[in-house]
Amino acid sequence: MNKTFFYKQNKHNSLKFFLKPLLVFIICFAAIYPCKAASAAELRGIWISYIDYEDAGLYDQSESSFKINSDAMFKKLKLYGFNTVYFQVRPYDDAVYPSDIFKWCKYLAPSEPSYDPLEILVEKAHKYGLSFHAWINPYRITQDNILNPEKNSSTERIVDGVKEIIEKYDVDGIHFDDYFYPSKHKGMQYYSVSVEDRKENVNKMIRTVYSEIKKHNPNLTFGISPAGNTEYAESIGCDIETWVNEDGYVDYIIPQLYWSDNYKTSGGYTKFYSDTLEEWTTIISGEKPTYIGLALYKAGLKSSVDKGWRKSNSNIINQIKLERNYGCDGYVMFSYRSIFTKEGKKEFANYIKSLSGLKLTKPNITLKRGKTYNIKSKVKVKSKFKTTFKFKSEKNRIASVSQNGKIRAKKRGTTRIHITGIAGSKVTCKVRVK
């Protein structure tokens, strides 16, 4: 999920219309915002990768500890406003559940436990009203070895694996990652196969998986998260236009737009995220939901090429605002552990502040010495994000603040009171004592 590739923007020929003014306006609006209108039920998702198992307290646990820790993980995600999780149940040719097909996933525990982790995970996610999607890497066997997409036996193995999950577990859907044909430096032997043949080999598998899922339960969803670089995605077998514009392939798409808007190319710095988002929304007709994959893991990244991640802690929320403007249906962040890293916390705090509507109705106050003021009454936040706020004064000698939000003016001067809410979201009040 964390690959970065050079981007080549597709150019689209402009169209000339000789129509009445109203029709011209409608067409122009559609060209700017080609996705369908965003639904009221915005999808707010998180990928939980095999690299997150240990950070989430899931690695090598007793059954009781696994239940406690998975419950805490999903409770926290619900508190943070997420409604959908994509949990990696098969990172390679393995499984985090008792399987008759695949070996045990050693990223979750050194050996298979006596309990069924996936059963617990699905139950706990649903307890908090989270939609749970089983995330699979369909072809990947090892980091350098894949099932050959050309072989029917490969498709059969993938389909059997999908059926094993949907027949045994109450998952809400099946989700595929961006690993199809390998890149040239990992699988040059496959590049005697033309791009069109690569696409068709993958399409056969995708159609079969989709059909089997719908045959079992039409309400289960099936979607794919392709690499955000369309040229690269197509080179490894992703038939994007077919998937998103024809029936029988996917129910949704999540392109991984893992760049900032301060990206260096040979022509200078460009709005890479914005340009790529525009390209994807031009390709997609709007018939299927489109969610945007966001690179929370890049928060604070030191890069000579993608400098935006280092220069700002508001990349994620700004990217969300933009995809909403394009009428997309939601977003998914990669990945769980990044919520808690030093740099990730800063990005995530700004995201939560916006999502929760956290604000201070009186950001500046003036008090006489000896007077008190209840700043807590001026803190506003959406009801589902209400929490116990923490209050801190920069200069206690000028004005102190209790943990109930009561400011006491002490000495002439100026200080700031910081009010911290969920996930480090913060507002600040400037206090002048006279």
List the helices and strands and how they pair.
Layout: H1 21-32, E1 43-48, H2 63-79, E2 84-90, E3 94-95, E4 103-104, H3 117-127, E5 131-136, E6 140-142, E7 145-146, H4 152-168, E8 173-176, H5 184-187, H6 195-216, E9 221-224, H7 230-235, H8 240-245, E10 252-253, E11 263-265, E12 268-270, H9 272-283, E13 291-294, H10 308-311, H11 315-325, E14 330-334, H12 342-356, E15 359-360, E16 364-367, E17 372-374, E18 379-380, E19 390-393, E20 399-401, E21 406-409, E22 413-420, E23 426-433
Helix pairs in contact: 2-3, 4-6
Largest sheet: 8 strands, parallel
The outline comes out as globular
Quick check: average pLDDT? 91
CA(first)-CA(last) distance: 55 Å
CATH topology of the largest domain: TIM Barrel
Percent of sequence in beta strands: 15-25%
Structural class: alpha/beta
Strand order of the largest sheet: 10-9-8-5-2-1-14-13
